[in-house]
Amino acid sequence: MNCAEAKAILLLYRTDADAADPQVAEALALAEQDAVLGRWFADYRATQDVLREKFRQIPVPAALKEQILSERVVMTGKKRREKRVMVAALAALIIAAAVIGFFNIPRGARPEDSFAMYQEQMIYYAGAGYAMDLATNDPQQVRDFLAQHQAPADYALPGPLAQAAMTGCAVKEWNGTKVSMICFRTGKPLPANLPGDLWLFVVDRKSVKDLPAAGTPRFTQEEHVATLAWVQGDKLYILGTPGAEADIRKYL
User: Fold this and answer.
1) Residue 235 and residue 173 share a domain
2) What number of other Cβ atoms are within 10 A of residue 168's Cβ?
């Protein structure tokens, strides 16, 4: 079993009872032996814990039980059709959630080391909930911490971004390469558990394929997250924030 096969199996891992399966047991053993796979699996489980907690916080309508029971007693042909539509919609939501959880599976036109996959994974880290490895508003402490952990520390901040309120940093992994995640605040109100709403990811450009052309930063809108990506020197930069294009471009 190689790492790619182990990842595909571990993406289905939910409880310790799953470890009784021989393939799962083999994948878990490989994750203990392979440092990169082990870190990926730890990040994946932490993300799943965050998502599960968010689902638990969704309130259940007070009359839902009574509505379900009443529909079981009397259901006309029209109601049956409506029920099928609701089930189909729910299935679509479940599939969408599964796609989010499977973001790290290789996809034919989007190999694991492509720019599209890298950007998707970094924005997923920011949007799914995260904890900073170092919480500080001191830019030099951030650089020193990243350097100590062999992550890119000699990055160049655009002038407007350098004036934003820094809140800390974290070290992420991308195919065995360290990624620096530097966190800022835009000044908008934030939930208590969110340390920042403006994220800069910095990585060695050699670790990512299909890079944006040098020059004008590439803008992307993914659902509610606006991103800008650019190459400068030997680094690839991705800046993201919830909002639209105007909300992100003002930091360049």
Assistant:
1) yes
2) 21
